[in-house]
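Translate sequence into structure tokens.
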Amino acid sequence: MSFNKVHSGFKVFILFLTALTISSCAERERYADDEITELRFWHGIESPENNLLLEEKIKTFEERNPHINIILENIGAQDSAMPSIMTALSADRQPELLWFAPVYTGRMAESGKLYPAEKFIENDTEFNPEDIYEGILESGRYDGRIYTVPFETNCLAFYYNKEHFSEAGIERYPQSWKELRQTARKLTRHFREKGEDSFGMLIPLGTQEWTVWTWQNFLWQAGGEFLSDNMKEPGFNGRPGVEALKFWKKLVYEDESAVFSERNAGYKIEPFIAGKVSMMINGPWNYPELKEQDEINYGSFPLPENEKKATNIGGENLFIFRSTPEKEEASWEFAKFIMSEEFQAEWAMNTGYLPVNRKAAESEKYRRFLEENPFIKTFVYSMEFGKSRPPVKEYSRISERLGRALENALYRRKTPEEALNQAAEDSEDLL
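Result follows.
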């Protein structure tokens, strides 16, 4: 082939790319005359890798929907963001979209500012709600209506340091509370013999939701329930709750094999990566960060059982707030994109979250991903015995009272019985 023909072909290719770019810009400019619909999207995703992926996926959405512009705003960790969100709602300055825990659906629905997603689901023939796992879709239901839709799901399990286990002669992960206690002691003793100030396990400390959310696993494992009498009475202060709280205290004070986290930062993985603790409870969303580090060799295992197995199902939902018909419709288009098989498969495989879309979870590529990533497979397995926080509108206020009680007991200001009974008494008026 002659140089002139190659050169001519190259020019045609460049002209084609230029035309594509101009077409894309012109498409957005065309909508600019009609005012592109801007949607503010508040979220609290902390992982830098996950943030980058979200930005990439939003660009894809905007390319397919050139009349919609998503403005991302990171509002920080959920535990500390709730006051800012409620202030925004009271001042009528809420965003159009919010990424947040579904347990707060009731409280925000009560504000009157939340748009019921059920209206869109009932009238959109292109969206099939059966593609979404029923239990996860139900997480956004309040007072008989689905208000919020799932963005992703997850649960809790243990991270563990494989090298620490090997050095301490531990051949298998603990499967019961008794074995967990023995493992934590053995790991800590190993550190002390080496003259190192590290611990077998991390216990979350603080009054915020992470501490409560983590402790609930032990409450359920001990046979208890968060609320009783058809969710009309506090149930966390019964025997199982006391037993769960005493178990945490034994690890810290009696065995000296566990250490408290930084206050209200029990979710942070820095102590684990630094080798200061061998085991910590956390979720699958830190997987991208764990893969990037080379300080430790890590793994995961399901939460040990006591009377039963249990893990707390988490994840975030997409909240659509009332605004204008145009913005509400645009918000629903974004919600459908988020729940699609395409987004869910890519988001799950790259972030560590678990898919909410059946087709994504059952796809061949996701199954291959699980076989190649046993760390995530632990969390998928754990979903089989997952439980959710009660969908009552006052959950966040009850959690605040319980969080203070847990901290008082862990700091030994009150006995577990005194602390939990006080929290229950303080919460009765809310139910």
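Note: Confidence is low (pLDDT under 50) at residues 1-26.
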